[in-house]
Amino acid sequence: MNTALIILIGIPLIEIYLFIKIGSQIGAFNTVLLIITTAIIGIAYVRYEGFNTLKSGIGQIIKNESPVYEIISGATLAFAAFLMILPGFATDLIGILLVIPATRKIILSRLFKKKYKKSNDGKNYIDGDFEDISDDNEKKL
After folding, report:
1. pLDDT, position 26
2. Residues 93-128: pLDDT tens digits?
3. Which residues does 18 contact at the CB level (< 8 Å), separation at least 6?
4. How much is the pTM?
């Protein structure tokens, strides 16, 4: 079965289940109030973290470094904001995990496992071998 179809059907089912369980424990009004509160607080925190990521990216650009992590982190924060806007407890939990810098870094590092060789000066290099073939061409002429 297609993964997108499973996600499209599975997420609302999980959210409905959680609405029913939590609503039966704390009441319908408190459940709705909790959803609205988590959305407002989540969006405010996403905005704060977004500005921090933007400042960090500008700092990387000023140092003449590529702000790759900041770009990916900014996209992740936009996705987290989208999840926080959606009503539901599961999407809010995932959004909160993506907003917190420590968990966001863990999640992103697991998603994008890329191995570089680091030199002593901290720059990334790709290790390789080469062969100079210009001398062979001159001898044949």
Report:
1. 93
2. 998 899 888 998 888 888 877 654 444 555 666 666
3. 88, 89, 90
4. 0.69
Least Cα distance to 78 among 107, 53, 57 occurs for 53
Pull the structure tokens for residue 92.
Answer: 């809010």
SS3 130: coil
Among 40, 45, 38, 34, CA closest to 104: 45
Banded pLDDT at 24 (limits 50, 70, 90): very high
Q: Give the DSSP per-residue string, 56-124.
A: HHHHHHHTT---HHHHHHHHHHHHHHHHHHSSSHHHHHHHHHHHSHHHHHHHHHHH-----EE-TTS-E
Tell me the H-state helices in 27-67: 28-62
| In the chain, domain spans | 3-115
Which amino acid makes up residue 31? T
